[in-house]
């Protein structure tokens, strides 16, 4: 294993011991509410399915993620981790992780672009055999800068919508050279993490950051995928008037038939009290939209990268930019209007100063899927060729069963006759 010049998190902090104590406190609180990871900890500690593996991770390093990281280490792996967003790391949690003898954490909040990629390079210097990514930056970095490692990588997991878009694009261009599970696309991820997690955490973070209510306000949701649906549903539940913008005619029709106003962003921008982007694409809110906006509008992003709102164009238009409140930058226009950008246009539910990310119970499910997907790669990796793979359905169902058991919820099962009927084609009228 090669050595990296980039130091672990402890090399960046003044009071390391205090940070470690506070980070551990946060992790223990989260774990109390993560019955899936608790169950998997017992299994992984007993069977050591990851023995001998080196896992390289680029994730949002906060308490819930940390419990996934420790689970993988308890399963026998050596783990190196860094952040997948410059503003989403909790330094105390990163420091607590770094105390584990099988974990090295390079994640630090507030790094610049060069430091961000230096930390990713430091993780890659551990020569991982399995990668776990959120946004595909590590996967892409390995393919571009460290292709010599690919032959020893069993496979990887990609956590989020934007990252899955990237790995599918790599596959289409014959540029993805090892197998990667599209964890984001499993039912246990899309139906809960993307809908409830993004909806609840984004709106909660915006409310706490601004101290403003949604009731009676026009909330514009850009994009009506799983994340957008969750935001729209939760905002409507807080008595907001929800407006949806979409480029896909079927999704636009779906939003219309579910009772939301649907209009182009050019029109929606003039009505908005809050615009929240959830597309995973770039240039969703751009120059001409800024001209239509009301004084005091809030602009926030729930997509992975900070490219959904064109902040370069906004800054060029502004006469003055100043911090109006922690986590809120006001861009004052020549006519006196103030357009307020939250969390520097980054992932608002993780990058805002008070952000805590998705609810613990939601991430317990998503990280449970991540854990069993990593277990599958470690124990059966040779069965998967280079390219994008769906997480085997039985693994997704395994996580659902663990969660139901923990909640004390029982459910029906198919009878033999029902199973035979559903699997046959010769039963007619």
Automatic annotation (TrEMBL):
Keyword NAD applies: yes
Catalyzed reactions: S-adenosyl-L-homocysteine + H2O = L-homocysteine + adenosine
Principal cellular location given in the protein's record: cytoplasm
Chain positions covered by the region annotation Disordered: 408-429
Cofactor: NAD(+)
Subcellular location as annotated: Cytoplasm
Sequence ranges of Basic and acidic residues compositional bias: 408-420
InterPro entries listed in its UniProt record: Adenosylhomocyst_ase-like_sf, Adenosylhomocysteinase-like, Ado_hCys_hydrolase_NAD-bd, NAD(P)-bd_dom_sf, S-Ado-L-homoCys_hydrolase_CS
GO annotation terms (biological process): L-homocysteine biosynthetic process; one-carbon metabolic process; S-adenosylmethionine cycle
GO molecular function terms attached to this record: adenosylhomocysteinase activity
Record-listed E.C. numbers: 3.13.2.1
S-adenosyl-L-homocysteine hydrolase NAD binding domain residues: 194-355
A matching Pfam family: AdoHcyase
GO cellular component, one term: cytosol
Free-text remark on how the cofactor is bound: Binds 1 NAD(+) per subunit.
Domain of life: Archaea
Residues that bind NAD(+): 160-162, 194, 223-230, 246, 281, 302-304, 349, 358
Pathway: Amino-acid biosynthesis; L-homocysteine biosynthesis; L-homocysteine from S-adenosyl-L-homocysteine: step 1/1
Keywords for this protein: Cytoplasm, Hydrolase, NAD, One-carbon metabolism
Residues the record lists as binding substrate: 134, 159, 189, 193
PANTHER family, sorted: ADENOSYLHOMOCYSTEINASE
Role summary: May play a key role in the regulation of the intracellular concentration of adenosylhomocysteine.
Family as reported in the entry's similarity comment: Belongs to the adenosylhomocysteinase family.
Name of the protein this chain belongs to: Adenosylhomocysteinase
């Amino acid at each position: 294993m090669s050595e990296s010049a980039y130091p672990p998190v402890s090399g960046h902090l003044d009071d390391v011991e205090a940070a470690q104590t506070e980070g551990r406190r946060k992790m223990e609180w989260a774990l109390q509410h993560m019955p899936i990871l608790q169950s998997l900890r017992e299994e992984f500690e007993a069977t050591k399915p990851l023995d001998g593996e080196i896992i390289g991770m680029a994730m949002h390093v906060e308490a819930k993620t940390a419990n996934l990281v420790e689970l993988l280490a308890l399963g026998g792996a050596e783990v190196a981790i860094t952040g997948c967003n410059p503003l989403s790391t909790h330094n105390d949690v990163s420091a607590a992780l770094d105390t584990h003898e099988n974990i090295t954490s390079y994640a630090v909040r507030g790094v610049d672009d060069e430091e961000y990629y230096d930390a990713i390079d430091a993780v890659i210097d551990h020569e991982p055999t399995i990668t776990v990514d959120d946004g595909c930056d590590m996967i892409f970095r390995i393919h571009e800068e460290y292709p010599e490692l690919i032959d020893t990588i069993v496979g990887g997991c990609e956590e989020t919508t934007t990252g899955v878009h990237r790995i599918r694009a790599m596959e289409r261009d014959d540029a993805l050279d090892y197998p990667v599970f599209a964890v984001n696309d499993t039912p246990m991820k899309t139906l809960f993490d993307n809908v409830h997690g993004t909806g609840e955490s984004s709106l909660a973070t915006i409310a706490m950051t601004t101290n403003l209510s949604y009731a009676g306000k026009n909330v514009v949701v850009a994009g009506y995928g799983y994340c957008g649906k969750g935001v729209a549903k939760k905002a409507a539940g807080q008595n907001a008037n929800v407006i949806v913008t979409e480029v896909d005619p079927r999704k636009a029709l779906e939003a219309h038939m579910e009772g939301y106003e649907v209009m182009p962003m050019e029109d929606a921008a003039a009505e908005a009290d809050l615009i929240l982007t959830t597309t995973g694409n770039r240039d969703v809110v751009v120059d001409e939209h800024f001209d239509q906006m009301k004084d005091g509008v809030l602009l926030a992003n729930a997509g992975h990268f900070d490219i959904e709102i064109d902040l370069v164009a906004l800054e060029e238009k502004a006469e003055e930019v100043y911090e109006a409140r922690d986590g809120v930058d006001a861009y004052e226009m020549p006519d006196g209007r103030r357009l307020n950008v939250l969390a520097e246009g980054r992932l608002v539910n993780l990058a805002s100063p008070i952000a805590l990310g998705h609810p613990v119970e939601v991430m317990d499910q998503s990280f449970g899927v991540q854990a069993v997907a990593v277990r599958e790669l470690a124990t059966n990796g040779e069965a998967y060729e280079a390219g994008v793979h769906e997480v085997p359905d039985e693994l997704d169902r395994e996580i659902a069963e663990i969660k139901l058991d923990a909640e004390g919820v029982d459910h029906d099962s198919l009878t033999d006759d029902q199973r035979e009927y559903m699997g046959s084609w010769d039963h007619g009228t």
